[in-house]
Amino acid sequence: MTDTTYRPGTVHALLADGSTVEIRPALPRDRDAVLRMHREMSPEAMRLRFFAVNPRYAQEAADRICAPGHRGYRALLALAGGRVVGVAEYTVLPLAPGEPVSADIALAVAEGRHGQGIGTLLLEHLVHAAREAGISGFTAEALAENHQVLKVFADLGLRTSRHFDGTDVHCIVHLEEDEHYLAAVDRRGRIADVASLRPLLLPRSVAVAGAGRRPGSVGRAALRNVRSGGFTGALYAVNPHARVIEGTPAFPSVAALPLVPDLVVLAVPAPAVADVAGQCGTAGVGALVVLTAGLDTGQAEALFTCCRRHGMRLVGPNCLGIADTADEARLNATFAAHPPLPGCAGVAVQSGGVGIALLERFGRLGVGVSSFVSLGDKYDVSGNDMLQWWEADTRTRLAVLHLESFGNPRAFSRTARRVARTMPVLTVDAGRSEAGRRAAASHTAAAATPTMTRGALFTQAGIIATRSIAELVDTTALLHAQPLPAGLRVAVVSNAGGAGVLAADACVDAGLTVPALDPGPAGELRAVLPPGAATGNPVDTTAAVSADRMRSCVDLLAAHATVDAVLVVLVPTALATGTRDDPLLALTGSPGRHPCPVAAVLLDQEVPVRFLVSGDDRPVPAYSEPQSAARALAPAARYARWRAEPPGSVPPLSGIDPAGATAVVAEFLTRHPDGGWPDPRDCAALLDRYRVPQLPWAWAEDEDTAVAAARHLVADERGRVAVKAYWPGLVHKSDLGALRLDLEGPDQVRHAYRDLRARFGDRMTGAFLQPMARRGVELFAGVVQDEVFGPLVLFGLGGTATELLADHAARLAPLTDRDVHSLLTAPRCAPLLFGYRGGEAVDLEGLEQLLLRLSRMACDLPQLAETDLNPVVARPDGVVALDVRLRLLPRHAHDPYLRRLRAARQWRT
C-alpha cells in the first residue's frame, strides 16, 4: 500500500485467510487503479460482471466509481498491498411516493482474489453505509450462471429473494438487521480472526529481534525461553553484533534471515521499534509481539500504521509475551521466570505483572495453560480475539481474562455470550473504585457508575467476574477440577461442629443456600456415621469419623437430588490424623466421580488453595478458608444457571416509528447544534414514537392557557392536576420547588401558575400540566449512553428517594427478553412488583414493554445521551411515566458489529 494516510471512513478488516485489506470510499485519484483491476479481469469475468465483453465498460465503471461524490451514490474499495482488489457500489433508485428507499448495487473482485471473502466484506460495509443513508433494500442483476455472486448474496445472512427472467436473475436484498445476519457476520469474523492468529500462536518459525549478547536483557530472556521451551520450528535471533546467541544463529537484520518468519518478537529500544517493524512488514512477517515499553505518541502511531499497512497482527507493545503449549508449536515467547504448564486454560491479561502472578499461581496449583497472551497496551490483538481463538481451539476448556479496558464492549459481550455457552469465561472486575459520573445531571446518569456498567456486561454475557486475583484462582481451581453445580443448595459436612457453622455462614453470605436435609437422606446418614453425629445441615460427623464413613457420607450427599454441591470442612484431630482412618483420605481415594462438585476446606492448610490428588482424574480443590470455597462455588452455580437457560432474543415491537423519532432529534439538534435538554413537548413526542405510555399532558405559557389546559385534561371540575414549571436545563424540579401538585379547580391552577411565574420570572418559559395519577408502585427507568459500552438501560425504585436508596439494576442494550426479566427481578424492590404480602402484582407485561421500547429507542438514537423516566407508576391495570427528561447530543451511529480491526483512536484514548 503506497498511501498510508488515514481518511474518514478508512478501516482495515480481515479476510477469510487471515490477511488484511483496507476498505475506504473511492476517490478520484483511484481511477487508474480501479481501471487496472477491471482490465486485468479475464474475458469470462468481464462477461459475468458486465453481461458482455467490451473494454469500454471497464473505463465507464472506473469513471463512475471514482467520480467526485454525488447524492444517492456510494462506492467502496478494498485494497491490499496498495492494489485495488475489490469494488462495491450502490446507486439510489428513483423513489415512488410511499415506497421505501432502495438502491441498485454492483460488485467486482480482482482476478485471482475470489474465494477470500472480499466481496462479502465489501457488501457488509456497503450495507452499513446504506442503512446510515436510510436505504432499506438493495437490488442487483446477475446472470443465472454467475454462481459466485449469487452465492455471495445468499450467504450474506440478510433476507434475499430472487426472480429468474430467462438467463438473468433479479435479486432483492432486504437490509433489516436481525439475529440471523449478525450470526452470519460472527461466523465469518471468527473464521478470519482465527486464521489471522495462527502465525502468532502456532508459528512455524520465530525470530527474536533485540536479543542482547549479555545476559539480563528482556530479548535474551525471551530467546532463551523460546529455545528451552522446545519450540518445534525454526528459531533465529536478530542482532547485528553477534553470530550466535543462546545457541541460536543470529543475523544482522530481518531482511538477512534465511527465511521469512511467521512471528517476530521485538525487544529493541523504543526509537527502533517502528523501523524494525517496517523491515518485518516488507519481508512478509505474519505477526509481531512487541515487548518494548515506553513508546511515545509518534513511535506508537508509526508502529500501528506499519502493522495495518502490512497486515501484521500485533500483541503489545509493553507486554510480557505469549505462549502456546500445543505440540505443534510448544512456544514460550515470554520473559517470565517459569514456563506455563500445558493444559486447558486459555489466559489473556493486559498487565504483565498480573500475567506473571497468574502463571505462577496456576503452576503451583497444577492448572495447565493452552495459550497465554500478555496483551500489554493492546494496540491490536484483544480479549475478543482471544475468546474466538479459544472457541476454535479444542484444547481450551476454560477462558481466563484480566482486562483493564474494552475497545468494543458490545462486540466483546456478543462473543463472550457465545463462548460462555461452551466453556466458563472468568475475569477480574478491575477498576471498581472509579468515581461515578461526577457531572451527572439526571438520576439515570448518576446511577450509571462504571461498576454497574461493567457488571451489566458480565451478567448478560455469562462471564464469571471475581473481585481479586485470589478469587479468580480459587474459582478457576473449582471449575478446572469439578463439574458445575446444578443449583445453589450446598451440603456442609464437617468433623467439628463449629467449623461447619463457619462454612455454612460463608455459603449464605456468598448467596448460596444451606437447606435442612430431607428425612430420607438424613436417615441414611445416621446409618453410616458414628453415634452422636448430627444429620441436619451442616452435617457434624464428630471427630470419631473414619475415612470409610466420611467417604460414604460424601458419596451419599453428592448423589442426592436435593444437593447441588458438597463442602467438606476438616480440622486435624488426634483421633485419626495420619492414619488409615484419616477422614482426609475420603477425598483423595474416591473410587468414582461425584455427580456434583465436591470441595474441601482444610483449616490447617498453609496455601490458599491446592488439589487433593485422588484415584481418578477429578481432583478435589481444598481451600484454607470457608469464605474462599464459598466464593468459588457461588459464581460457578450462577454460571451454571445462566448456561442452563436458553439464550434470549430481542422481541419485535409494534407501533414504533424510528424514522419519525430521528426527525424529531434532527430538528432539535438543528436548533441546538451543541445539544441540550428538549422541552416537555419534544420529550413527549419522542416517547410517542416508541409508544412509551405517558400521562396526558398539555403545555401552557400563561395562566389563562393553563386553566384551559387543566379543564381539558380532567373530566370534571373536581379532577386534580399537576403544574410543572419548565425552562431549558431544569432537571430536578422537586429540589427547586418547581412543581405544584393536587390542584383542584381553575382558581388553584391559576394561582399555582402565577406563583411559579413570580418565583422563577423570565427564566420560566412555560409549564407542563398533567392529571394527577392514581397511586401505584413508584419506579424509575432510564437510559444513559456510555461512550465505550453503548446504551445502558437502568431500572429500579423511583420517586424522590431514588438516588438516596440507589436500588437500581442495569443491562446493556439491546435488551433481550431474558435481559428484561433479569432487570425486573434484580432490584431489592422487585417483590413489590410481583405481589408483596398478598398484594396484587403490577402489570409486568407493561413494564417489560416499557423497558424494551426504551432499549430500542436508545439503540436507534445514538444522540440520546440520557433518558430519565421518574417516577414510572406501575399498577395492576397499567404502567405510565409521569415525568420525563431527555438530553440530546450531536453524535453519530457506530455499528459495533461491523467487521473491522481496531482503529488508531481506540488505543490512543
UniProtKB/TrEMBL annotation:
CDD domains: NAT_SF. Residues 21-188 form the N-acetyltransferase domain. InterPro entries: Acyl_CoA_acyltransferase (IPR016181), ATP_grasp_subdomain_1 (IPR013815), CoA-bd (IPR003781), GNAT_dom (IPR000182), Ligase_CoA_dom (IPR043938), NAD(P)-bd_dom_sf (IPR036291), Succ_CoA_lig_flav_dom (IPR032875), Succinyl-CoA_synth-like (IPR016102). It comes from the Bacteria. Keywords: Transferase. The keyword Zinc does not apply. GO terms for molecular function: acetate-CoA ligase (ADP-forming) activity; acyltransferase activity, transferring groups other than amino-acyl groups; ATP binding. Transmembrane segments: none annotated. PANTHER family: COA BINDING DOMAIN CONTAINING PROTEIN, PEPTIDYL-LYSINE N-ACETYLTRANSFERASE PATZ. This is GNAT family N-acetyltransferase. It comes from Streptomyces rapamycinicus (strain ATCC 29253 / DSM 41530 / NRRL 5491 / AYB-994).
